[in-house]
Amino acid sequence: MSPANDDRSRARRLQQAFLEEERGGVRRSMLLRVVTMPIIAVWIAIENNFPDLLFFEASLALFLLIGLAQYRLSQTGHYRTWHRYLFPALDVLVLALVNFVPNPLRDQQFAPQILLRFGNEIYAFLIIAAAAFTYRPRIVLWTGCFSAFVWLAASGYAFQLEDTVPRLSEASVRRMSTVDLERALMDPRRVDVGKAIRQAIVFVLASGAVAAFVHRSRQLVARQSEAERQRSNLSRYFSANMVDELAQSDEALRASREQKVAVLFVDVVGFTTISEGLSAEQLIGLLREFHARVQRCVFEQRGTLDKYLGDGLMATFGTPAVSEHDATKALACATSIVAAIDEWNGERPRGDELGIRVSVGAHYGPVVLGDIGGEQRLEFAVLGDTVNVASRVESLTREEHTSCLVTENLIARAREEGAPAELLARFEFARGGRVRGRSQEVRLWALRTTAKPAA
Questions:
Q1: Residue 140 and residue 148: Cα distance in Å, rounded?
Q2: CA 91 remoteness from chain centre
Q3: Which pick of 94, 210, 224, 313 has the fewest CB atoms within 10 Å?
Q4: Phi, then psi, of 382 in degrees rounded to 5
């Protein structure tokens, strides 16, 4: 995949992750309303008389309806960007109407100026908090700025009324006694412009702080999405359990070390002959299906897919960390690979198409682990005599006319691990001798199988 396509794919994943978070956020915002509105309703009933309180209780029901409408719309495919700005604005407008419109159920109406003094602007912070559940910093800032605008507009409207007491000048304040000044400040038709501006500033600053928190949350979501992508890529090479182990490990893979592992090689016998009669598309499809089946066998035994080798592959058991049953798992994997290919041949169409014959070789012993390569590209490598022997053993399957050969080192280690007797019984001694490139004798065991052997 090209860098441009990879960037687009990553952007789509992030967008999908944010949409999922936003849908969950709208649901949590609705739950916030369900929890907070009854609490506020109880306080309204305590603070107000009947039937005055019905006006305020009806406004709470309207807030719930707005939240429900947003939630329902977010669950459909018609939730647009402008909807995200609309619903917080509706909340702010309803709050403003409740505070600045005279209560029609009240016999005695307050002056418009005194409505600014009840302190109900604090409920705007609940609206700003609810906007945070959109996981969009711009929506949060919009909510805070719109709240500031509405509050300033209401204060400006009250300030321009004819009966509004004008702002006290510095000279008049100095001439007043304390009692007169207190009386002037408490005048019900006086509008405190400074207070209105402070409220607007606090709305903007509070929404800015919440928006910064939301932005940080989006970064965490992006990092989590990237981590999942990396784990997904890693799972192509390691089993799921090994991915978890690697993700939780603090030790760097590049730290070179020596440890004993089981090494397994798999190859398709007569691949050149098979490929001659196939088109390029058929050949790639065949290899993909072959690799997928073998890879599944490796990962089921918590093995590591070290590398693909054209029509074959190399797998290890005991990397990056050793376990108590690495040799047993290698033996089980070898038998399952042969069985999987036999099953695949049974599923493949008959006729002129050749059956797939597989050769498997495995050995157990010390290897060297570490990263090799340059600064621009590194590869986690498993090196040493054990790897070479396993490769040579795989090639000897053709001479021994069997699908699977393993060394006595692997069998002996599996016995030490307490491998199941039925698994060990699947192998019988084949021969002893030397393998190419090695002076010491290697004793080989062959898999008992009814499948057609490699030739």
A1: 13
A2: 32
A3: 224
A4: -115, 115
Q: What is the pLDDT of residue 411?
A: 95
The residue count of the chain comes to 455
359: helix, strand or coil: strand
Task: Please report which confidence band the pLDDT of residue 425 belongs to, taking 50, 70 and 90 as the band edges.
Answer: very high
Q: Look up residue 104 and give its two tokens.
A: 């029609």
High-pLDDT (> 70) share of the chain, %: 77
Residue 110 has phi, psi (to 5 degrees) of -85, 160
Homologous superfamily of the 254-447 domain (CATH): Nucleotide cyclase, GGDEF domain (3.30.70.1230)
Q: What is the mean pLDDT of residues 375-384?
A: 71
φ, ψ (nearest 5 deg) of residue 304: -110, 125
Using 50, 70 and 90 to split pLDDT, how confident is the model at 439?
A: confident
Phi-psi region of 279 (alpha: psi -120 to 50; beta: other; left: phi over 0): beta
Residue 283 · residue 315 · CB < 8 Å: no
Residue 349: is its pLDDT beyond 90?
no
Peptide bond into 51 cis (omega under 30): yes
- Is residue 305 within 8 Å of 313, Cβ to Cβ? yes
Query: Distance from CA of residue 255 to its chain's centroid?
Result: 28
- Listed in sequence order, the residues at least 6 apart from 291 whose beta carbon sits closer than 8 Å to its beta carbon are 308, 313
From start to end of 243-303, where are the E strands?
A: 257-269
pLDDT at 128 over 60: yes
Three-state SS string over 195-223 comes to HHHHHHHHHHHHHHHHHHHHHHHHHHHHH
Please determine, for residue 57, whether its predicted confidence score (pLDDT) is greater than 80: yes
Confidence of residue 244 (pLDDT cuts 50, 70, 90): low
Residues sharing a CB contact under 8 Å with residue 207, sequence separation 6 or more, in sequence order: 128, 131, 140, 141, 143, 144, 145, 147
pLDDT value at residue 67: 85
- Amino acid at position 162, single letter: E
DSSP reduced 3-state for 21: helix
Closest by alpha carbon to 412, among 301, 333, 321, 331?
331
Q: Which residues pair with 264 in a beta bridge?
A: 315, 362
Identify the weakest region by mean pLDDT among 78-92, 166-180, 292-306, 392-406.
166-180
Q: Are 355 and 348 in contact (CB under 8 A)?
A: yes
Dist CA 363 CA 99 (whole Å): 81
Average pLDDT over residues 265-294: 87
- Over range 97-119, report the average pLDDT: 73
Helix (H, G, I), strand (E, B) or coil at 344: helix
SS3 state of residue 324: coil
